[in-house]
Amino acid sequence: MTFPTPTDIQSRPIAVIGSGTLGRRIALMMSTQGGEVRLYDQAQHSLEEGVRFVEETLPMILPSIPNSRAAQVTGIGELAAAVDGAWLVFESVPERLDLKIEIFGMLDSVSSSDAILASNSSSFPASQFISRVEKPERILNTHFYWPPVVRAVELMASSRTDPKITDLLMERFEVYGLIPFRARKESVGFIFNRIWAAIKRESLSVVAEGVSDPADVDRLFTLVMGGPIGPFRIMDAVGLDVVLDIEEHYASIRSGIPGGPRELLKSYLARGWAGRKTGRGFYNDYNTKD
Known about the structure:
CATH class of the largest domain: Alpha Beta
CATH architecture of the largest domain: 3-Layer(aba) Sandwich
Low-confidence stretches: none
Number of strands: 8
Distance between the termini: 44 Å
Oligomer: single chain
CATH superfamily of the largest domain: NAD(P)-binding Rossmann-like Domain
Number of domains: 2
């Protein structure tokens, strides 16, 4: 089915559902072209932290984006109010399929009839969470990495998505200082994450088997590959709970996924070490206010 492209997007808000680590960073990038950006979260402290993050970080990135101007950033704790009138709604909630299905069913019923609904899911293609929506043609994946440092975003449509939606966002995202990539078919893990999954899983296996430790793996990785940080620092930044959710999903759909990496992640999480957001993960030198 075709879907009417949203109109008057310059004067309509953008909403981000979930004010966690990536949700607030998506809101940050969407706040570079004026207008209004709304952050929604049920947890008041997360909502306040998300709005504060955007307001404090926005002045630092605006000079790097042509023709930029700061948006009004609003934190809203009621879902229908957050998406009211929005032309684009991003979902950035925990990586659980049941939750994605529930959220998109709700968004489909309370958002504007021409709003585009986009998921930041890193492992669930849109076709897996549209069972409760009436307009699947307006739903797609828009997977962000770590903006504003990494500004890549992968767009992946399902067989039900109207191609015009993807075309519009491919063009529009560049205005916000993003670099969009189109996945040409549905793929669990998109493009980069399929490659990253192999690196991440083997790094975890090396440590789980006692061959090395996280610091040495990272140091060797950066020396050989030339990047600024290694896999364990990256996992700490993403959140070990999120990394585990993704690994559990891969293991549920692909045979032969080793269990050692997941057991290692569980051992850290059992001690409350979820990464940078909790002050400790594979490393313990984080400030929880970062």
